[in-house]
Amino acid sequence: MSVRNLTEKHFEEGSNLDSRENLAQSSSQLGSAPHNPFSDDAEDEMYGSGSYSASDASLIHHDSDRSPVENSRDVSDYKGYYSRGPAGARQSARSGAAAAAAGRLGRGSSSASQAMPAGLPSGTSLNSHLGISTNDITAPPGFDRYPIVGGSRVTSMAVPPGASTSHPQGPSNNNSSASITSSDPFISDQDFSPFGGYPASSFPLLLDEKEDDDYLHNPDPEEEARLDKRRFALDFKHMDKRAAGGYISFLLLFLGAIAVFVILPVLTFTGATIHSHPQTITILSLYEYPQLSAIRTSLVDPDTPDDQKTHEALDGSSWPLVFSDEFNAEGRTFYDGEDQFWTAVDIHYDATKDLEWYSPDAAITANGTLQLTLDAYKNHGLYYRSGMMQSWNKMCFTQGYVEASANLPNYGRVMGLWPGMWTMGNLARPGYLASTEGLWPYSYSACDAGITPNQSSPDGISMLPGQRLSVCTCDDEDHPNQGTGRGAPEIDIIEAETDTTIGVGLASQSLQIAPFDIWYIPDYNFIEIYNTSTTVMNTYCGGPFQQAVSAVSTLNTSWYEFGPDAGYFQSYGFELINDEEDGYLRWFVGDKPTYTIYSKSLHPNGNIDWRYLSKEPMSIILNLGLSTNWAYIDFNSIFFPVTMSIDYVRVYQPSDAVNINCDPDDYPTYDYIQSHLNAYTNANLTDWESAGYTFPKNILTGNCKSSKFSLS
What is the CATH number of domain 311-419+489-681? Predict the structure, then answer.
């Protein structure tokens, strides 16, 4: 093969030189080829001038009549600078002719000897024939774009099947050991690489021509298996900053998604975040309170003035304040379960055939007062709405002084409204007729005609069903405490009405009890009126459902909502001592007593025994009603909405008899109420049997086998 001398300048003197002269000159230069700067001394010795001959310099020119190689396969035997040495040996190993040439190198024969194509004269150099000077630096070198890389397990040239480096070479006329297909790019029938470089046969255009590092087309299963085992460790080991940033960003996004779509919904659903921050709520006002602000730790309201924490009783003793509610907190509401002392009921008060619906919406605190508003507002099939507050089963008292301060609704001269502040035994719930049947307004502990239906009188004096929880109830019958007569008497602090004759308001203060005196007349010898100019006994003494021991007192028109001097508050109250012998019940308007009932006024009369002043735990009721059962209603003079404002409620008791419990030991109520909740929670039930219960039998009428009470 011709060798180019890159250390000398040789310019082509003319392209029109005779081809034979160029061939002869090229042939003569083969014997003294210049030193190749890209090869070492060993290579120079191997490929030196002494190893070349004129016959070895001849190349076969392949055309359509090219001679086949000895093994009948066309292979490429390009021997450029990159094919010398060990790399050249490996490339020679891929073709049978190259393998034979490598064998001849060991015997001292020329590795560049190749058969010349037919038609060329003997001893003519192929380069001379092609008109290319090996010393011309402007001529493109024979550059192999894809040389063999040392130590590679893969090849970039296909080895013909059956080829071997030890394949013997047959004899040739021109001493060539093999006839091969030349890879010289200047042979006319070989194409150049379209990507630069040559020869084209060295460029991998076929599927079996692989690059050394082309793992896509030339995979190495062993290396891939080894790398696959360590792929994660290697990925992290060789990770650059960009990849690390992407990985960290993805990890943060993943953790953020977990927090937003998993952790946060779980915490929200379980309520774990509710107490993380104090919550505030706004209740119908501009004021904000913490959620537990309504919970008081003292029964006495902290807003109660110190000079109002005692009361002087009839006997001159001083009674301490045991409960108070000043209603100073703005925006309090009293829906069921909201307040520890009060409940605003949501019922129609059918007992007195009221025209309004009692709704919790109509009871709220404002301007330092509790406001019960009656309005012409259609709801629940009724045309009016108002409010009723009860302390039933929450706060009760047995004896003591109860006082409430109020500004009454509308004008004092206009009749029709029914504002009330009153108390009733806790065994009956106001407005729940099933619970009151047979208990209201009994206060009786005898076993006689007084416990029977209609009081066993055919004259119609009583329409009551009889005392349900009598003192002589049979053993094993339904009774809160056997051997004690139980009931639900009523004591009214005030029920406001109107004297149309003089055009002023009246305060009716009464005790309602059963069984009844004859014609409902008590013994007035034991009733004391303190100022007859303002207080008189009520002409109404009762009816078939209750006996009312009542007196009425005139009121100042300034104590009402409307009027020339309106807007003032007045206090009303009663003082109760329930001793059977020396007990009394005294009423007040302001700090002045109006009248007193002594316990002896309710002595036995006719076929009934003593009616005692209430020993039952009493709950407090505050309401504003509208009913034709109370008075004629002057609708033209009632300016809706009207409001009864209550400034405070206070309870005082003797120091040795403090009890504001609704379930005292001697008069229990809790277990009995819990056993009959249907009657105490369903206002639509009108009698005890409709609630699913029966009247207990008594020894007087029920043929008992035994009873804790003995008729003897």
Answer: 2.60.120.200
pTM of this prediction exceeds 0.90: no
Residue 691: CB atoms within 10 Å: 20
CB 3 within 8 A of CB 33: yes
Which H or E element spans position 433? helix 433-436
Q: Residue 324's closest CA among 301, 295, 303?
A: 301
- The upper half-sphere exposure of residue 602, i.e. CA atoms within 13 Å in the direction of its Cβ, equals 30
Give the number of other Cβ atoms within 10 Å of residue 320's Cβ: 14
Using one digit for the tens of pLDDT, what is the confidence trace for 414-473? 999 999 999 999 999 999 999 999 999 999 999 999 999 999 999 999 999 999 999 999
Separation CA 542–CA 589 (nearest Å):
23
The Cα–Cα gap between 622 and 635 comes to 23
Closest CA to 79 of 126, 138, 15: 126
List pLDDT tens digits, range 631-680: 999 999 999 999 999 999 999 999 999 999 999 999 999 999 999 999 99
pLDDT surpassing 80 at residue 704: yes
Instruction: Give the separation between CA 388 and CA 346, rounded to whole angstroms.
Output: 8
Q: Show me where the domains of the chain are located.
A: 1-214, 311-419+489-681
Distance, in Å, from the CA atom of 695 to the CA atom of 456, rounded to the nearest integer, reads: 17
Residue 514 pairs in a beta bridge with 442
* 276 pLDDT more than 90: no
